[in-house]
Amino acid sequence: MYGSAAYLRPPSVSGQSQSSLQRGSREPALRGKFTPKSFKYNGRVAAVLLTSLLVLVGYGGPSVAGVLITGSMLAYVMDAMRYKEGSFLAVWMSLALSNLAMGYSTLFLDNEYSIMVAVLGLLISSGVLFLTGCWATLQFKWIQLQYPAVVVAFEKMLLTSCLPTAGAVMYLGLIVHNGIATAPYITALILCGMYALFARPLSSSFYISPHSVSTGGAPAHLGSVQKPLDGLLSFFFALSMPALVYVAAHNAVIMSWTHLWAVLLLVSGPILFMSSIPQGLWWMGDGPAANAMRRILVLVSLAGALAGVEGRIVFHSFGQYLKLAPPWSYIAITVATYGFGAVVLLLLSGMMGEETAAVLLGPVVMISTAIGSLVLGLPIWALPAPLIGAAGVALYFESRALRDYGLVVIGGLCTCAWFLWQHFWFLDIKLDGMSLKIICSLIFAAMIPAVVVPGLLMAKLPGSGPLLIMQAVILAILEEHLFAGDYEELTYNVHPMFPASLVIATTVIGIILARKMGEANRISNATAFVLECIYGAKISMLFVPESRMAIPVVGYALACLHPLFLGPKKGDARAATTLEPWKGLGMAFCVILAVAAARFAIFDALHIVLDRKPSEALAAGSLLLAIAVGLLPMINAYYAQYEGPRRAAVLIGSFGLLLILLRPPLPIKGGAECPKLPLALCPRLWDASHTPRREQDDVAVYGDGLRRREHWPLWLVVVASFFGVLAATSKISKSVSFAPFRLIQAGLSGLLIGGYMALEFFPGMQVLQATIVASCLLVAFMIVLLSVPSRGSAILLPLLCICWFGSFPGSLFVLSVSRLPPLPQDMVRLHPDIAEGIALDSLRWQTIRTYLVACFAAEALILSFAAKLRLGVSKGRAAAASSSMLGMASDAMYIDKAAEFLGGYVPSAVNEATVGSLAGKHHQKLTNIGMSYLPEACNILTVFCFSACLWVSNALGGEHASLMVPILCSILLLLSQDSFLLRGLADKRRYFPPYAAACGILTITAIGAVIREAFSIDQGISLDIDVATLVFNVGAILLCLPSLLETLDYLWTQRQQKFWTPILTGILATSGVFISEIDAVKVLCGLSGISAILMSASVQHSKHFIQRVL
Hints:
42 helices, single chain, 4 strands, 1% strand, globular, mainly alpha, two-stranded antiparallel sheet
């Protein structure tokens, strides 16, 4: 049915005949067959629409942002579930709700804008949201198949409407962010770029046109989406929008010369750009008249743009450097700039031939240079320098000889040296600690490559690489010094010394030029890589300018990224053999040195991001993570086939991550203070200005109370976790000697974890500490015997399990006969009012008892999880060994797929027999390895862990313990099918126990809370019953019962429900959230509503996926 949709045509296209398409030259039309495919212009559309959406989010506030984020997440989830219609609906609904939220915040909330501006902003934002929906619609292939006419219309709408709509939104955002003074100029640049992206002829993404797209009139643009009228409107919008807003903002003083020059620049600049680019004025058609009109527009707009630049920039901001008195200065500058600019622009745009340019270029350049030199005030003895440079330009254009280009170098450098010496060299001032003479020297040094390198590249001579690298380094140093320095005394915060826009511009231009020269083989790949690293690292100064991290980032990028750009490509067989071992160690050492050199920059970045000094562990862990990340490119490029280097990087990164997460205390000697070494040696990680925050300082100030202690036992957890990572990254061996090795490793980890819990939670209670350590050892040994079965596992596992179960009542008995350790001495000083008394002792006993139960709950959780993994492995092997009845596969899941394929007509006896055989093989597999008791033991451990966690939650949570019930009930997912109690707990029913437990516990808790609130039991039984509380809360519980029972029935029987039934019961259950004030009732109603919604989606579309979520 949909196969023929690829050849459908919209009525507007199919209704036209071939003759009508070729008859008119005013309206190009699409011609060809429709073919569903990806939208070709996703990149440019995403760039403008996503930027506009960011502006709208800032304008609309958190409500718009929340709706857009929620809608995008919902659309992504539905698309992942292959619910394409739901994803499409979610996109448009989120955009519609965002528009409503935008309208509400704009029209009804307080804002500083007038009603007309608010309505205009709302209309523009609605247009952006609509275009976003059109763009999202084009991504759905089923829309392309079923509605080709809509797809074609949406494509044209996007390509013709993005420029005015998104341009207006960006203009508003720039006005708010940058102010009205600079926003028109930036908007003019953006609109010119958008005109080049959207207003020139573009072929359709969905039509295969038999005609090619070229410049000219309609016959050459049969495949263009835009019409000439669209190009004309875009042209007028791009040239008029910035100027009109500028006039409206400065209408009171618009008749002053400064603003008139600004308006002229804003009008002429876009016209000059759009007239000069290829196909910029395609909507004018071809022919002598159109070409003459283009040349006239270029020359007229060039005159206007130069006049605007002279009046608004040259004479307004740099008038002090012009030595010729007006009006002669105006005439001279105009003649010089217009003559040279007209020749160059006509030559570059192809409107002037090279022969004509060769005749005109020499005289025009010489005259323009002489006039400009006189205006700048060059003395007679310095005048030959710029004239020699100008003569070199003219000679080189005709001869392409390197000796002629040498004249350009000599003249340009001499003129630059005179300008710096005349205007800045004599000033004895410092800018942020750097002398102005040094800055002038660096500028002159950066000018040398700028003048020399073009000649070397055009002559294809070597030597340009080092010059370009030198220039990039000088630019990075100068820009960081001028951008990050404190120049408030000089600029008075009126304008920055070096704006961020120039940093971004030089960065982007440098990266693009380096990549283009590398692709053209004008410079080597190594030089291009170094240049890209230097220019790319400059952008870091925008984020953390105070840290001066551009140079450290350059070193880190050079040390880490060179294998990605200069190493062997993927699939190269010589990747593992081309790198010698000493080179690999040298690269790793360079990464370590780069991180060590950048440690202060990393510290400053963490300080700014966290808004406080980072702790010792956080700073040290960040350095280790930086080392691990820096080693990954080298490992992937040269050691992809070896486990050792990857394992080393994972271990380094894991150790750093452990330091960040656990934050153990670090020794101060060698960190921020010098260790006591001879010869006054002071190897330390940090200096006086980069001292990390230390928890020991808090202890020194506040004393050693119950809550203020140095947590040195955390190092035991760090080492134990590191042992775990070490074991996880090692290869599993099946040799007999491997199990004892794992037992020794597990014993060390158990000792460390047990030591941490004993020292941290039970200080001063030695007997209880010994029992905790012993229980951790037992758990570690049992995990090893479960994961790596050996010959003694069948005998040792039951004994160890019985000993562990006996250690819990033993520990409770030891706690009951133990004495409380004495309080720290500083406790009396810190808390003299509560340092003694029965209440404090009772609180301490309760806290220690809670710690003890929590420790055993954690151990039970680990054991039950390990047992569940062992059962899963055994069951998988048993399923793989069994044969399928229908010849399809060996697992019961494939029986269900066969049933769905056959419309459900598979006898239940077949399914039961197959599942029974699988269960029998599973039990037989466990019996063979001596673990037939493992399912029952796993279930007992799970129930014990769940009960202990509930007790701890009630002890710590108090009235709000019900909020943790749904999370704790997920522990019951570890329950397994056994042969004693849970015979019917198949894999499909594994979500029934946690949901049933959550519903039961919350229901009982809710009923108890309602009784306490209604009858005021906490204050003594009273005859005054709060009837309203009783009625509302009991009603809320009754409203959620249908949804609970229906979900429980579905999870157990997998019985198909009607689509609307769960939705109705879910709405009823959710209403209880708004009529109750008790936490348990709210959680119960919310759980019921969410499960009902998910169940309805499961019934309709993806049953198995949503069942896991439930």
